[in-house]
Design a protein that fits this description.
The chain has seven helices and 72 strands. Helix 3 runs antiparallel to helix 4, helix 5 runs parallel beside helix 6 and helix 6 packs antiparallel against helix 7. It is of the alpha+beta class. Strands 1-30-59-58-57 form a five-stranded antiparallel β-sheet, with no helix packed on it. The protein has a five-stranded mixed β-sheet with strand order 68-69-70-72-71, with helices on one face. The protein is 16% helix and 40% strand.
């Protein structure tokens, strides 16, 4: 009991201190894209995504936006109790539901797995995967082991007994069921009641694993809930809560425990013999007091779920915020870490104790029994506080300091108008390095008072007699000891110390380089540069004898700048009308919004080796660490979506597209939950783009009408300091060439064209050869037939001439003129007939078997009828459709005509036969008669027979003749069709 009394006193004291503290929390609801405001589970997978279980499905969060996996209409699974990424099945997530059994999520699809029909068995509260790939499932019906082969019961309980599992980082599997505590042996598949000194094994409500391989065991059934921290099977910590129940516990890397209760969020940290307790509720910024689930991510953010208020993020040990009423927006911090905030209720003192807890004390200041309200504050080298009250009176307050405790304030001096100190404009107050207090009187101008001992006025520049200064809003001492006085109207001056006192300087090079506009803030940084914040036109930076203008176009969130301060690491804090901004590195003019911490107009910023804060008229925010101090951390860039020609495709390691699919959209992200607005990206598509793009917060890029070829899409993330990662994520993209552009097609075309050209050339040569052959044939025909006939005509003509001139009275009848003239006529007719055959054979219209047969038939009929010879003309069926060459046509015609002519002239036959048949690739022509025949050896001349034989054999055919004296004659010619 003696231990609990001081513990209660400490708690009550700290509750008072923490009452006004606002936690750095950020809430997410369905308005931000969450699937439902009823959040039941939180899990982080190997890629870094947060999986948020709700009663409507699951939301995946990358720090920028939510992507929802909804259960869908007609699918009632209750809500999600647990989420687990499989270690043994690739791309598989296990989901435990409150009434629908298990869900297996893979490849974008949900598969429902029922665990049976027993009551409560499909109310799965938690799941764990064992080394053999099986699932341990804690259900309302007990503990079971699930594999693809079925289920195996390890423990059955009464209905609705609630069985929960958790695995510590040391591999121990803990189970609580029906308010009892067990350890599960996955090898023997047995449950063991732990024998751990000081650890109860009943009345257990919740167990959960912590980040240091310990587990938190929550016990109820007493006036106050207790939490036991068990590590390596021994109790290492035990603390009671100021609530009857506890819902979860998480532990940060600094050793602080955060426990959710129905009455608020409890924070516990060790300090000596007693732990320190904080209780945070909705008054501290929580969306609801009863946070149902807690989870610590890899960046030490704590995430909370609730039944109806969505998801909440708490950034631990990043900032501490206090909300005070009546703040003027002014504040100062001393080198010992104490900060002073003037308000209408008094002076608020803030400091850290020995365990890092911020404490506060309100000092009510009374002057002759009347409470005064400080508005501006500064401190001298003697560490006295000087304030200006709301009615413009100056006071000096002595400070009696006690380590790790509140100070005591006493009024030591009051400067009144009666003593020659004009009432002050309460906007600004500054004590310089030589203990000269500077302020602006209500009438305008500037007054300096030496406060090293007895206050003494040392400078006075009143409006409008001595100076154009009016309503000085900002005072700053530069590194040369000059005082910058920035006025409300576009008149700014510098106060310079001289041997005679002080004078105003309006000719300074920096001052004259500035535009004549109202300026609200000025700071000279350690590198000698001057930074000026204007009322409406952003920042002016004077460095290296040049002036640079920075506005919202350069990344500022507002062009109304209210305060400037150099950080301890060489950056700049910038207070604007839209909130706080940070420049991590002054050499890189890149701005990071810190609006998740402060969105109000920031009037004062401060940063030194001990304290960094920003003050507004509503809150005071202390920063333990700015984003610049978090190191050059580069979250991995992940590709989340690939869309080709408007159709989404699965995300794969490389993209191969057919020809024509050349409009590609790629979505990507980088998972980070700290100051996500600072993340920016650069990308390029090689070889189309050689240089990185401008940094952008966009997480999607589209390329249209890409040419066929191989590409490399690279994207890299810039961390909060604006430094790009060295290892970009790369997605190969290949677009196939059209068929007509592929190498094999081009080769085929070239070969085809070459082949066609060769064939055309061959055809041309063949045609030329055919023409030459025809010409040769015509020449031969003309020479053989026409030439010989004409020669005979010439000879007969000579004979007729000689006979005409002869004196013989009795000429030979065979050589008489009439006889010779008749021979000339016969020969001429033969020549005409021969010429007709030549012309007919070379006419393209006659280059068919049908026309050939018709020509032979006509000739045979004509000559046989003239001699009264019976003709039998037969043609084999189908021969007329045969393809035949021009040479073969002429040969057949001439052979048939020669044979028929011989029959008519010499055979005295009564019957004749003409037969045309086909044998394979040859045409067989047979001409037979029943005439007198002849003996070959008796013939003195065989010109006709010789010509027929030569014509046939010249074409590669076979010519035969059968003749028997007194028995007729038979001629056979086998002629190739293709010639």
């Amino acid at each position: 009991m003696k231990q609990r009394i001081p513990l209660l006193i400490v708690w009550l004291t700290l509750v008072q201190y923490a009452g006004a503290q606002k936690l750095p929390v950020q809430s997410f609801t369905t308005r931000e894209g969450l699937a439902s405001n009823l959040v039941t589970d939180i899990y982080q997978d190997s890629k870094g995504y947060l999986w948020i279980g709700t009663d409507e499905g699951i939301s995946l969060f990358d720090g920028d936006k939510f992507r929802n996996i909804r259960f869908g209409q007609g699918k009632v699974y209750g809500y999600v109790n647990d989420i687990l990424e499989s270690m043994y099945r690739k791309d598989v997530m296990w989901i435990a539901t409150n009434s629908g059994g298990l869900l297996l999520y893979s490849g974008g699809a949900l598969t429902n797995i029922s665990l049976g029909t027993e009551p409560g068995v499909n109310a799965v509260n938690s799941i764990l995967e064992t080394d053999d790939g099986a699932l341990l499932c804690g259900t309302d019906a007990g503990l079971l082991r699930y594999t693809d082969g079925g289920i195996e019961w390890l423990m059955r309980t009464r209905f609705n007994a609630y069985t929960k599992l958790t695995r510590a980082l040391d591999g121990t599997i803990w189970c609580n069921s029906d308010s009892k505590l067990f350890i599960v042996d996955p090898v023997t598949r047995s449950l063991i009641t732990p024998d751990i000194p000081g650890l109860p094994t009943d009345s257990i409500t919740v167990i959960n694993a912590l980040a240091d391989s310990s587990v938190a065991v929550h016990m109820a059934g007493r006036p106050r809930a207790e939490v036991f921290i068990v590590q390596h099977r021994r109790v290492v910590k035990r603390f009671q809560l100021f609530s009857q129940a506890s819902l979860f516990t998480v532990r940060t890397s600094e050793g602080q425990y955060w426990t959710g209760t129905p009455d608020g969020l409890s924070a516990v940290r060790d300090a000596g013999d007693y732990p320190f307790y904080w209780i945070y509720t909705t008054t501290n910024g929580l969306p609801i007091n009863e946070l149902t689930i807690g989870f610590l991510d890899r960046e030490q953010n704590i995430w909370f779920g609730s039944f109806g208020r969505g998801l909440t993020k708490l950034e631990t040990h990043r900032s501490t915020q206090f909300v005070f009423t009546g703040m003027s927006g002014k504040a100062v911090a001393e080198t010992d870490g104490h900060a002073w905030v003037p308000t209408t209720h008094g002076m608020i003192e803030l400091w850290r104790d020995s365990v890092g807890l911020w404490k506060r004390q309100i000092h009510v200041i009374r002057d002759n029994g009347v409470m005064i309200s400080p508005v501006s504050v500064s401190f001298s080298s003697a560490r006295d506080l000087w304030i200006i009250t709301g009615d413009g009176v100056l006071f000096r307050l002595t400070v009696s300091r006690t380590p790790n405790a509140a100070s005591q304030l006493t009024i030591a001096a009051k400067l009144s108008e009666a003593e020659g100190y004009p009432r002050a404009l309460s906007i600004t107050l500054m004590i310089d390095s030589r203990d000269v207090l500077w302020y602006s009187p209500l009438s305008g101008g500037l007054i300096g008072i030496d406060v090293r001992s007895t206050p003494k006025k040392v400078a006075e520049f009143l409006y409008p007699v001595h100076t154009m200064l009016r309503d000085v809003r900002e005072l700053h001492e530069d590194r040369s000891g000059r005082i910058w006085a920035l006025g409300f109207e576009p008149v700014n001056r510098i106060v310079v110390r001289t041997e005679a006192g002080f004078r105003l300087d309006s000719t300074d090079a920096v001052l004259t380089a500035l535009p004549e506009i109202p300026l609200r803030a000025v700071r000279q940084t350690s590198d000698g540069a001057f930074w000026f914040g204007s009322r409406y036109q952003g920042i002016y930076l004077y460095q290296g004898d040049s002036l640079r203008h920075l506005t919202t176009a350069d990344g500022l969130i507002s062009d109304q700048i209210g305060s400037l301060g150099e950080t301890r690491s060489g950056g700049m804090l910038i207070g604007t009308m839209a909130g706080l901004m940070l420049m991590q590195d002054r050499s890189v003019l890149r701005f990071t919004p810190l609006q998740q911490y402060i969105q109000s107009p920031v009037t004062t910023v401060h940063s030194d080796s001990v304290t960094t804060f920003a003050a507004t008229r509503f809150e005071m925010t202390f920063f333990d660490a700015l984003p610049e101090s978090s190191g050059a951390r580069f979250p991995q860039v992940l590709f989340t979506s690939i869309t080709v020609n408007g159709k989404e495709r699965p995300v794969v390691s490389s993209v191969e597209l057919p020809s024509g699919e050349n409009t590609v959209s790629i979505d990507y992200t980088a998972i980070s939950f700290r100051n996500t607005g600072a993340l920016r990206f650069q990308y390029k598509l090689e070889p189309l783009e050689a240089a990185w793009s401008e940094a952008t917060t966009n997480r999607s890029v589209t390329y249209a009408n890409l040419s066929p070829g191989d590409y490399r899409f690279s994207v890299r993330v810039l961390n909060q300091q604006g430094i790009p990662s060295d290892m970009p994520s790369v997605l190969p993209v290949s677009i196939a060439s059209p068929v007509w552009m592929r190498w094999w097609f081009i080769v085929a075309v070239i070969v085809s064209v070459a082949t066609i050209l060769i064939l055309l050339e061959r055809a041309r040569v063949r045609r030329l050869l055919e023409i030459e052959k025809i010409r040769s044939r015509i020449a031969a025909d003309l020479h053989d037939d026409i030439g010989s006939g004409l020669t005979r005509i010439a000879l007969l003509s000579d004979m007729i001439r000689r006979q005409s001139g002869s004196t013989r009275t009795e000429p030979d009848p065979a050589y008489s003129v009439p006889s010779l003239t008749a021979k000339v006529g016969d020969i001429s007719r033969e020549l005409v007939d021969a010429m007709s055959d030549v012309v007919w054979s070379i006419d393209p219209k006659n280059s068919s078997m049908e026309r050939l047969i018709q020509r032979v038939r006509t000739f045979a009929v004509e000559v046989c009828e003239a001699k009264d010879i019976a003709l039998n003309f037969s043609v084999q069926e189908g021969v007329e459709r045969s393809r035949v060459g021009s040479d073969s046509i002429r040969a057949v015609l001439l052979v048939a005509k020669e044979a028929l002519t011989n029959i008519v002239r010499h055979s005295n036959a009564r019957n004749a036969l003409v037969s045309i048949t086909a044998e394979q690739d040859r045409l067989v022509v047979t001409v037979r008669d029943d005439g007198k025949g002849f003996a070959v050896e008796e013939l003195s001349r065989m010109n006709g027979l010789t010509n027929m034989r030569l014509r046939v054999e010249k074409l590669g055919g076979i010519f035969t003749m059968d003749a028997v004296k007194g028995s007729g004659t038979s001629v056979h010619a086998r002629i190739p069709l293709s010639r």
